[in-house]
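ok trying again, last paste got cut off:
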Amino acid sequence: MEPLAPQATDVYADVLIDSIPLAQQRPYTYRVPAAMRDRVRVGSAVVVPFGPKQRVSGYVVAYPARAPQGTARDIRELLGDTIVPPALQRLFQWVADYYLCTVAQVYQMALPRGTLNGTVKEKTQLVVTLQDGLTGDLSKRQMQVIGVLTGAGGQMTLADLVRAAQTTPGLLRTLEAKGAIAIATQRIWRAPELPNASRGAIPEPTPEQSEAIAAIKAGEPGEVFLLHGVTGSGKTEVYLQTIAETLERREQALVLVPEIALTPQTVARFRARFGDRIAVLHSALGEGERFDEWQRLRNGDAQVGIGARSAVFAPLARLGLIILDEEHEGSYKQDNAPRYHARDVALQRAAFEGARVVLGSATPSVESYRRAEQGDYRLLTLTERVNARPLPPVEVVDMRAELEAGHRSIFSRSLTDALHAHLGRGEQAILLINRRGYSSFVMCRSCGEPVRCPNCSVSLTYHKAGEALRCHYCDHHAAPPERCPSCRSPYIKHFGAGTQQVAEAAAALLPEARIMRLDRDTTTRKGSHQRILDAFAAGEGDVLIGTQMVAKGLDLQRVSLVGVMAADASLNLPDFRAAERSFQLLTQVAGRAGRGEIPGRVIVQTYAPDHPSVRAAQVHDFTAFYTREIVEREELRYPPFQHLINVVVSAEDSGIVWKVGEALADRLLAFPELMALGPAEAPLFQLRGRYRVQVLIKTPELPYARNALREAVRQVERPQGVRLAIDVEPHSLL
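nice, full thing came through this time. structure:
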């Protein structure tokens, strides 16, 4: 890319300032000092004065054709040599427009953190190399230094040579002047700690795998494939072989995994196949590691980028293939601005750069499968497990019957017997608790029905403060009933038990068993997630208890039993995707059993054994689940039939927050091509001292709704301290 017209007398650059609200966001023009003209380019991160502040970060987005009116202030500093390539600049602008955020927010999120604040620099060392061009005689001490260097193969770092030869840098400079050695600066790449990987023989693909690999290899630029393969069907091998073919074309590949927790195991398989040609990008890396991995990809030193959500912005100049593993996963959606979905950004990036896309999942999202049905994506299927291993049988236990029989333990009799039997044979078990730390809904233990909103087909959320049940879509609210509205049973209560409670109960039930936990409390330290999995895989534990982390991507050969403690915890969440998430989670966790030579077994405990998601997961039938779910989505005008935008209004004064929320909803009602619901209390009505309400927009035309929302936001008067958080295409309303 050409620098900013260095021949001009005065050169100017348009800079987007970081940390400016969306309504005020625009480029500001600065003069480029003569000393920087050959280095400042579009895409550079810079430091500039802004208002009373003398140093704020920004990003060069253009250089104007003519000088600005008045006097322009100078750019103060160039933050490293990071240049955002034109393809990524275009993508950043698309993300800002689509998700109603600022371009500066996209830059800040996408670039390595050390680039933005200037705290991370390239790490270098001085290296001494033996030369043949000696002129003049050497002293005895100089000869000793040459002897040490020769013994080390002719090259050492300056620091190591000084220590080994007990010499000084000054003497080495003298040797350099005589032509005996050369001293040069060498960059040190800060490599992240990666799991060990041994290269094995490349397996022969199954007929279904071969068909999928051939289709992807022959794909057109920008073509999208939905790889729907049952758990254990070998989707990863399809990824590996299509990446290898991409590298043979001298193109680069990008692999996204749904969360940091999956990265170590994924990286091990890719590293075994591609060695040092991979670079890893995720938020658990140190600033220096992330900075260097980003640079390796940008420079072309690495050809395969692997990472979590934000890796979708990796600087790959010759991008030929993007893979999203477990494309249905909600962790591809970012919770804070810019609230992008990595899958949708990947699809747009592929369209811009002509890359093929593979979306892989055993349980595709309803939206993706719908697009495959309509022909937007090409559907590839893997219906059989590798080596023809059977999918494990799934037993559904009716916890209502357990209660009627007087059995009140959190472990059903069937699961109790299975744990004793499988552990008695020296096998391992996984127990899934698919909930987080607190009860969020009220459910009847007799009939299994939650208390639902009469308007929105979602369960009501229990709020301990005020002892109330509320709908977070329409704001319907009611007092918690003393008896079940459906069957009049008095056995109605707040629902759920956390991992710690289950672990304590398991220890009491199985006193000889070694119990391990895998949840956010036990994985706070860097690398702890992988250490727990490695220990369990090595046979150091008998039972692994965890949250959704244990359902995804694990390939543990000795696990023969999987128990789902309470399927209802996800079935009854107040979210229109609750049924979909439950089916996905049950199917995914069932796939962890029987992956080795030992046959697997799955036991699902639930108060709703006849729920369609439970029944479909029991027989591993995605089609049955999808066929029913897509009809309900269309009836209720939820995605993929309508787009959603959720606007959360927050303020320290509850009266003000309701007033602004109502004003925004009123303004939106003036636009006929959308529906505005609310305002309603947000799921966490009070958070960090701020009250929160939300307005939900439904629309068949997303560009129209975005423009309408921009206009409504401009019209609504907002007192100081009121904030708006806009989430385009929210993945969850919790």
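cool. The radius of gyration is 29 Å. Confidence is low (pLDDT under 50) at residues 1-8.
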